[in-house]
## 1
Amino acid sequence: MVVFHIGRYVETRGARSMLEETPQIEETVEQWAQARLEALAAQAGEVASGFYLCAAREREHRPRSEWGRLGVRVRPVRAERAAPGAFASEWFTRRWVDRTGSRAQTFTNYIRRGTGDRYPRSALAAVAQPWELALAEALEERFAEIRRLVRGVSRLRTAFRQHAKLERALVEGRGQCGPSGTTA
């Protein structure tokens, strides 16, 4: 089948309509998006690991009172409406209760990121030691880049789904009579 497309003829390789191609394209886009999100989650995990390695080195040279409580976690988003492969990179503070014995417990409080791609310096400064803040600021720039890429993948995924829905509606509406008795 040959179709006229933006000033030139394009072969559609045997597909009779976009509706036939859409499931294959949709599957390819979904596979790409999930693979990309997995790779970005792995990069975010490496950044988080870098924080803990640097923090451990810093703590070796400091008294326990200056160790700090800041932490970062990369974890899957488990919300009901979350897209497959979605993850979050989140900063938090730790608080230990009953540090002695086998009953020690750790509690975490997540820090609010706000509306942008980065955690505001003020949010981190309120809970971090000065050395932690410097380290977190440097790593937060990389987390912000990863968050922007994740948002781009999500937007592409959403845009394709919306386009596929429009394609299906166009094909499904073909040949039906409208209110005035004309075909759509």
Note: The chain has a mean pLDDT of 83.
## 2
Amino acid sequence: MYFSYFPGGVNYDVPCEEIDENGQMKIETYQKLKNRLNTRKVWYFTGPPEKKPHALIAIIPSYVSTTIINHQRLLDCLYDRLKTSSNNDDVDIEQRILSIEFVPLSCVLDSHEISDQFIIDCDSNETKQQLMDKPLKLDLKKQSITIELQSYDENMQKEYNKSIKAERYRELIKNHDAAVKRTSNK
């Protein structure tokens, strides 16, 4: 049997045998949990993220070097997708992608396990939906790479919520550490 520990966010299941008769978590279990929370890679925000309703995030697989996928290669791939899925020959494909911005999350969060991203600003929600219909496939000489495309607003809101939860847990740990120090000094 497990207890869900820590209110106010994603709960961490703790086996019953790790909870003492007073309902407190054993120190070793608490230390493991504290370590897991402290080593979690979270993108911190100073406030809610800016809304970009026509933007996408292209998530580059973490095993792919940014020398392989750059702005131009991604842009060419996006243009190809728009050309093949467009019903209207009158529309200038090159006007549908307004900008591409590289976000080096692996550097920002100091982890090779985190995927880098590109923010793609589209001219309309229709263009965004057209691109999001299926993952982008990029065929290189030796391999094929799948690039996941997600809504910028949804992705950023998810990251912002993770940031808020991480901050709450940091406060809980800080308060718990202070409470433990007070009781041990009595």
Note: Strands lie at 2-5, 12-15, 55-59, 97-103, 117-122, 136-139, 144-151.
